[in-house]
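Quick log. Single chain, no ligands specified.
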Amino acid sequence: MVEAERQELFCSVDKNLSGTLDFSEFDVAWGVLQKKLVAQTLELMGLTKARVMMAVAAGGFLLLCMFAFIFVGVAAFFGGGALGAGVTTGMCAGTGGGSAASQKEEEVDEDKVAGQLDEQE
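-> predicted structure:
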């Protein structure tokens, strides 16, 4: 902060024109100083308000495009035609096969099973 900015800050918060700051004036000056420092730091980082708003708008637009792509793709594959029926069947088969492949095969204790069968007879 240059001397002129410090003088401007001091003059803007010294409401009673005493040439000194009391606690309430110092508290106001501290808040103003913090806001200025944050704004300067963000500007040095390249995060101006306009750039942040543009980034949020671009992210929202990309999100909308992605949803549109997904919904159009789903509508194309799951339509009433032969392609839709084939894709649906393939997805169901793939899901079932993947689910079966991911399950762990249980080890069977044959002696225990035989013992339980003998008990029931």
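Residues 22 and 53 are 39 Å apart (CA to CA).
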